[in-house]
Amino acid sequence: MDRREFLLGIAAGAALPFTVPTTNAADTSVSVKSQRFQPMTVEGLEKRPDFWKVRPDEIIALCESAKKCSRKEVICHTPLGYPVYALFYGDFNDAPPQTNWSAGSSSTTYKNYMGNPPPAKQTFLFFAGVHGAEPETVAGAVNLVQALETGKDFRGRTHDELLKLIDQYRFIIVPCVNLDGRGLSPDHLHGIEWTKFRAVSQGTWKDGSLVGWRGSKAWFPLPLDRVSYPGGYPNADGYNIMHDAAPGNIRTAEARALLRLAERWRVDAVLNGHSYEHAPSVLTPSAIDTPDNVTRANAISDRCNAAIHAAGLVQNKLKENRTPRSTINLNTVLALASGAITLTLECSVSYDRPDKEGRPKPTRLYTFDELMEPVFVVLREYLKDGLEKPFLVRGDETVKGD
Ligand SMILES: [Zn+2]
Question: What whole-number distance in Å separates Cα of residue 95 and Cα of residue 114?
Fold first, then answer.
């Protein structure tokens, strides 16, 4: 890129494309600040399989070495300085929107936001690892990138049907958003007990008590001087990126970068990858969106959950058409940024239910393959759904007048 292109890029507000490096991925070294807290080590944790590449240096090296993608960006740096990569597959040569979705959706035609002509294919954004302690969707994303790049994932398995579906979209993948939390967390939580999972995820106060899942949400950011361990849930500044969703006061570079991605590339649908301590599921969508989006997202979540059941990954079929929730989180503001349908996938971290005192024991310990399998199942169904009927009816073809 010469100086003129560089200045034009800045003038257009366009993110600068990165040159695909020619160096061996193994040579990659990223200089980051040291963690304030020691990474959590869990006694007796089994050795991870070779395909479970979820450490920051492995994720960054994979992204740096990706060559099949049409575009690659470091969308932000984490507080510790890790580069957060987005890889783009498909045609991303469209000029930036001339208006934002808020104005454009109310203007004379949706094309003022979408471009004229709009992108030939719908745009899908999949990101994983917003909570760094939850490595399962990161493992799925990393294996998907490897399949997109080489035809096979790190197990040597092909994903022909899914890759063909992805090819019918403009597809953006961010394999790990919260690399700070990932770097602080164990490679996996396979077979560990519930309280340990809570400690690893949301951390512990100085008196040793658990911060807890809901407890962690009492703070934004988590007061790092009061904890003995912050968990891999927040970034290194203590922010839970999933709840960085107060318009006018977005606090993290990571959330801003995802919102910018959605807006800039006119994203039509989002899958936000997480894990929890139950059998995998796509969560019931939030009611805080357009009525059409809520109905559609609910139907897609039903379809994905039926497919998770059909794949043998969950014992009981989930009830359909569940009542949308009142949740406000990153999905809410992503939907505002580009009008997108947004859904959260929760993989399991280990068992089909937590091993808590007084409750029935878990009946199933998932294998590592099974832990990340919902990523492939859900992406397949989600993408199929958007081809059967476009995700969004963005507006009229014709100019409406004044
Ligand atoms: Zn999560």
Answer: 10
pLDDT at position 357, please?
81
Looking at residue 143, its pLDDT comes to 98
Using the mean position of ligand 1's atoms as its centre, give its distance from the Cα of residue 47 in Å: 23
Q: Ligand 1 mean position to 36 CA, how many Å? A: 22
Q: Rounded to whole angstroms, how far apart are CA atoms 247 and 258?
A: 14
Q: Is the pLDDT of residue 141 over 60?
A: yes
Distance from the alpha carbon of residue 134 to the mean position of ligand 1, in angstroms? 6
Ligand 1 centroid–CA 399 distance in Å is 42
Classify residue 159 by burial, with Cβ atoms within 10 Å: 0-12, 13-18, 19+.
buried
Q: Could you tell me the distance, in angstroms and rounded to a whole number, from the CA of residue 274 to the centre of ligand 1?
A: 4
Instruction: Compute the distance from residue 113 Cα to the ligand 1 centre, in Å.
Output: 31
When pLDDT is cut at 50, 70 and 90, the band that residue 21 belongs to is: very low
Cα(279) to ligand 1 centroid in Å equals 14
Burial of 398 (0-12, 13-18, 19+ CB in 10 A): exposed
pLDDT higher than 60, residue 16: no
Dist. CA 131 → ligand 1 center (Å): 5
**Domains of the chain in sequence order:** 62-388 (3.40.630.10)
Q: Is 252 exposed, middle or buried (0-12, 13-18, 19+ CB in 10 A)?
A: buried
Q: What does residue 242 show for φ and ψ, rounded to 5 degrees? A: -60, -25
Q: Per the confidence metrics, is the pTM higher than 0.70?
A: yes
